[in-house]
Amino acid sequence: MNLSRIYNGELQRSTTWQQQQEPQSGPGSDTSQQGSACSPSVEPPNPPDQPGSSSFKSEREWPSGTGTYRAGVHLGYAVEDLDDMTKTSHLIPNEKVTEIRNSMSGLSTTLKEKNATDVDVAATIKETKRLGNQLYYYQDKPECSDIERRGINHVTESLYHAREALSEWESTPSESANSIAPSALNDADG
């Protein structure tokens, strides 16, 4: 099982425990113990912004377009993942599910429909982090099953992909309305 968390926009992987068989002792062997031991191992992560990542479902298309549009699509995926998880789980109270779902859905719609210059990227990134942290609260509860934990991971990884798309868009001068191209500055001086 691969457990991942996103804190302040960083995808973090926790270690998992795997059973390993120790060499069997036999005639002429200096191994005196038999049995198994647990040893920590870290599962190799897929790059989080690639179609092969663990939350990217095979029937989904990897979005193209501006960073804000891609972020909106990923937020839509997060809504789908939350809906899938809450069909069978009652870990998260209905009121909280509704609040989280409405926030993600509203952000998704806004990012897919609005002109990119009207988007407050920093506030949107902050909101996706807040939503992810709310979900981690429930994931850390002892009564959270592996299936629920996996469902929450799908939602938070979709939120992570949305933040990554926004961050890439914000840092690309040709796409971002939050920056001015150097040629525009030179024209203003002349």
Automatic annotation (TrEMBL):
Chain spans, region Disordered: 1-69, 167-190
Bias (Low complexity): 18-29
Composition-biased stretches (Polar residues): 1-17, 30-39, 169-181
Q: What is this protein called?
A: Uncharacterized protein
Q: Which organism is it from?
A: Cryptococcus depauperatus CBS 7841
